[in-house]
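Running this now, will post back.
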Amino acid sequence: MRYILIHIILFFSIVHGFAAQQYTLQINLLDVQSSKVKVKIKPPTIKESFATFIIPITVYGNQNDNSLNYLIEDFQAVDDKGNVLPYEFISNNGIVIEHAEHLHEISYWVKGDADKEGIFQSVVENIRAGESYVLNHHGFFGYLQGYIHYPYELIVKKPADFYGASALDFEKIDAETDRAQADSFFDLLEKPILYALPDTCSFKVDDTQFNIAVYAESGKIKALQLRYTLKAVVEAVGEFMGGFPVEEYDFVMYFAAKDSSQTVSAGQYGGLMCAASSFYVLPEIKDAPKFKKLVRKVAAHELLHLLTPFHLHSELTTYAGFTNQKMSKHLWLYEGVVEYFGLLLMVRQKFITEEEFWLTISHKITQSWQYPEVSLTKMSQNIFQKKYQKIYPNIYHKGMLTALVLDLAIREEASKGNIQTDIASLRGLVLSLAGKYHHDKPFKDDELLNEIYLLTSPTIQSFFEKFVVNKKPLEYKARFQHVNITYHERLMLRRGTFGRFWLYPDYKNGTWKFHNVGNNELGLKPGDELVAINGDFVTFDLIQQRKKLIFNPPLGKPLKLMISRNGKTMTVQGLPKSYVVPKKDYLELWKDVGSYRKEWLYGE
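Update: finished.
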């Protein structure tokens, strides 16, 4: 009891000491002008004559723009009498304020940026008056350099029936006013907010509670729909990681009403890891299996960030994106390894087939060749330079492939007895490092590789020196041969085709129709409705199972379709025509899968 009383006394002493020494942030979502919102900040009292106000608009390889001049308007700093203080924009995210010892309030308008072409949507501010408001703090709020650790009070005026979905704990002052506290700017930065009409649910896995908050522009996607999809992912990630390092985790999800069934732009949509929460901007895809796979893929990736960089990270990572801050060398670990773990998890849990797994690998190899060869550690360390910004997407291709090949190399060394059994895979290595470090105990950036060398073997050290520190191209052929896969850099394949046509779902009528029909071996015409495939009546699941028979048919095997044309049912059939297609980075799976590949893909 005495122990508790002492801590209560200390708590109130700290709060009293900081009462005047905090940031008070005010934002009024009831007053939106042309997708812009006004922000007011009352900073702590400072003694310096000059102060630099920072809004860290950069998140790893994604920038809102080259300058705060694009992000904000009508910046103003005033003293307690309302006199305007001189200021100057000095960098992409810094503003120097003169006579700062008299600074009483900072104000500016933030532009909602969600519709700007080419920007990664999960890191921008999306202001849709009366509909939804996305507040990503790294683009909304800031701090005075040297005063980053002071607490923050956030006061939000919002529509009475709107709910603020966030890892922040909001206190309801009245129907239109919320208030929340953050321990520091870092604490605030990690907790973005989505204001919209409430649509939430939750579930528990082990000792961690997971909350889901959803806003869909069309109103068609609901939190409860996603509960089962996300729970399966959470359970799989928890098993892979050996549990979760947080007691509560929030999925905050925004769905744009743009049907991207054919392609989903990785440059525009995705997720943002924010400590004990993650924020997503994803397209509403009508194709249910594709939609489920997309949600699983991005959710697994962001959840795995709880392993790294949330749990296992460099001392430099905390300040990533801030002014003049040196970046960690280990972005290959935070993104490349996590991207690989996410894909490995998908195939292990049978969320995707092994064929889909290898198709993804093949695609990533092809994508990686589009970028110049570069040292992964050098790119990581210099990621905010324009030269490396341009090649940042390759961290998800070359970085991921490096992790895959490294995993196979570690496993081979372990099978020879050169690495101890608890570090017999890349997962084992990362979990071992995570056991030594944790969220509040980062590793020294320049010491990580030496620690890895001590835990593994000279062969693995050589691997890092060649393919991670230096820029030697990865060697796929021998490594894939070991898991019964033949890698062809270029191969001419003979394929079958029935000709030119597309098959689209008609959701309104619950049918499938052929469009964009050209010359074809089946005699199909535009508007034909598909009724049956080889005698089996069409369902959505049947289409998914048999679509290869239509669009990638085996040579010499006839296909019989029942169709409806102008209200009349008829049967069409034909043999596929042969053609030759060149394939780059083709992976040929052996009929004999082999125990080694089974153990890797489905075991430890």
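The radius of gyration is 27 Å. More later if anyone needs it.
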